[in-house]
Design a protein that fits this description.
The chain folds into 3 domains: 207 residues, Rhomboid-like fold (Up-down Bundle), CATH 1.20.1540; 67 residues, no CATH class; 42 residues, no CATH class. It is 53% helix and 11% strand. The protein has 15 helices and 10 strands.
Length: 381
């Protein structure tokens, strides 16, 4: 069902459009929607993630022990074999891993050793350790011996299917369930997947950019002046959750149906465009004030920007990802009468309606006519 057909949301446009939408959904009720596919995948990943045994995963940069900076650098240059020793996690679930040359392993086992460096770690499932996004793992990282470990680019997408706990999963999936059908009904399944995934990737890119700038600024300027909006957290701090993709879907639906009303907390009716602006405002304020979830809000902004921008230019999904659109080898596929170019008079009538009443006044059929007219004009060029 679409946003306008749920009991906690009301469409400010005509009732007949809503009734038509319900009838279309009923006719295809046995087909699995793209929204439900994403929800099912996220739920399955969460179940598997929760069931797998936990393993230690690095949670912070390697830091030389006091007065061991030179020894740490020498160890890296000489590529000495390393030995790690893990201490039990504290009440936060964070433990320490100590690093020392392998040649002193026997002394370490006896309780006498002098660690060269240490790093924090947390115990998580292998699937989370493999998919979570961190600046270090996704782009560039080196182990204590100086070997390159970064370049794990799958994390730009993989983190979007992980969740910290059930409430985190439930809130994100609720957002998809409410707003996803609006985008899917307008653009179709494949474009829906593209918008969601592009928003996830853009969320990681914005997080990465702000984190990289924050780290560079901190190393150059110290703590004398911290630029608001930059992320100064450790490059191993994980980014997890589908929120960036959900924000992309919400902003896309806000562009498609700005005057639809959604009941915030199931009580307060708010137009979708104002609801989306409120989410953006919260993300910006949290990021500028370096709030508790500043990194997550940076990803939210990236996903929101992507969803808003692509929703206004869905043809880019056809041009860049040929399998997302109705074009094959540069030719239009015309399989039915509905795929024929619309009449000029009909297009002019719809454009006049947009100028007079706004884009939100259009019916699904009128939106489809405009979309086909746009495709036809682009192909003719």
């Amino acid at each position: 069902m679409g946003l306008a057909d749920r009991d906690y949301a009301r469409d400010s446009s005509s009732r007949s459009a809503g009734a038509s939408l319900i009838s279309r959904v009923r006719r295809g009720r046995f087909r699995l929607s793209a929204t439900m596919m994403v929800i099912i995948v996220c739920a399955l990943v969460y179940v598997i993630d929760s069931a797998l045994p936990k393993v230690p995963v690095q949670f912070g940069e390697w830091r030389p022990a006091p007065q061991k900076q030179q020894a740490f650098e020498d160890m890296r240059r000489s590529r000495v074999a390393m030995q790690e020793m893990f201490t039990p996690p504290d009440e936060r679930g964070v433990g320490q891993v100590w690093l020392f040359p392998k040649s002193v392993a026997g002394g370490a086992a006896g309780g006498v050793f002098d660690p060269i460096a240490s790093a924090e770690y947390i115990n998580v499932s292998p699937i989370r350790g493999y998919l979570q996004f961190t600046t270090a793992q996704a782009v560039i990282d080196f182990d204590p011996a100086g070997n390159f470990k970064g370049g794990e680019f799958w994390r730009f997408v993989g983190y979007g299917f992980l969740h910290i706990d059930f409430m985190h999963l439930a809130m994100n999936m609720l957002g998809l369930w409410i707003f996803g059908p609006v985008v899917e009904q307008q653009f179709g399944k494949r474009r829906y997947f593209a918008i969601f995934l592009l928003s996830v990737v853009m969320g990681a890119l914005v997080y990465l950019l702000l984190n990289a700038l924050g780290i560079a600024w901190f190393k150059a300027m110290g703590t004398q002046f911290l630029v608001p909006g930059l992320l100064f957290n450790d490059p191993y701090t994980p980014l997890i959750g589908a929120s960036a993709g959900v924000y992309g879907i919400i902003l896309a639906s806000a562009w498609l149906r700005p005057n639809d009303e959604v009941l915030v907390l199931f009580v307060l009716p708010v137009k979708l465009k104002y609801f989306a602006l409120g989410l953006i405002a919260i993300a910006v304020v949290t990021l500028l004030r370096s709030g508790g979830n500043a990194g997550g809000e940076a990803a939210h902004l990236g996903g929101a920007i992507s969803g808003w921008w692509v929703a206004q230019r869905p043809h880019l999904l056809d041009d860049f990802f040929s399998f997302f659109g109705p074009r094959v080898a540069g030719k239009r596929v015309t399989a039915s009468k509905s795929a024929l170019p619309p009449a000029t008079s009909e297009v002019d009538r719809i454009l006049d309606k947009v100028r007079a009443q706004g884009l939100g006044s259009l019916t699904e059929r009128e939106r489809d006519v405009l979309h086909r007219a746009t495709d036809e004009r682009r192909n003719s060029r």
